Amino acid sequence: MDRKIEVKGERLKVKGLLILLSIFIFQFLVPSCKQNNWIDWKTQNELWLQANKSKTGVRTTDSGLQYKIIADPTPQDALPNSTSTVVCDYTLSLINGCVIETANNVSLYLPNMIPGFTEGCHKIHNNGDIELYIPAFLGYDSDKYTSGSYGEAEGSGTEGGTYFIPPFSTLIFSIHICGVSGN
Q1: Contact assessment for residue 150 and residue 140, using Cβ atoms and an 8 Å cutoff
Q2: Could you give the C-alpha distances from 106 to 1, 38, 91, 111, 125, in angstroms and in order?
Q3: Which of 7, 52, 114, 135 falls 20 to 30 Å from 147 in CA-CA distance?
């Protein structure tokens, strides 16, 4: 009987340690919105991109965009160009696994998209699948980089709202191209 109590006590200790570990990881991976402390988040994203570029199949363009072609079944088709409209399914997430948005069968005019998304769509043909790893300077903070005010990066959406991408965020898009027009 004493042995059962001892085992139960050990389980409680393990559960307690797991809870503390989860809290630590959550605090490390998710920036503090109330303190607006984005410097740690920026560093985490830079380190993540550095590690990601050495993964199998990941390529890096001259601009710094990282991508991985998952499937490209129709390479004889024309690639989307900078004035194309693509119909696609996509999921947008952050390096901490947080899914920001999913869309199916959406029509996107590439000149209206963030630079990294547009560049990445030029890499895949109709019916292809690609993952894009877009650094902040090719994402929603791109205007801050080009204007020289990167320290004032804002991300996208409303802080505390249901849709918010923190400043300095690497954007991870999983995209399936369903159709291309306007080449």
Answers
A1: no
A2: 62, 31, 12, 15, 16
A3: 52
Q: Which residue has the tokens 């363009």?
A: 61
Q: Which SS3 state, helix, strand or coil, does residue 63 take?
A: coil
pTM of the model: 0.75
Cβ atoms within 10 Å of 47's Cβ, excluding its own: 11
182: left (phi over 0), alpha (psi -120 to 50) or beta: left
CA distances from 85 to 21, 26, 48, 90, 182 (A): 45, 38, 31, 15, 6
* pLDDT tens digits, one per residue of 86-106: 999 999 999 999 999 999 999
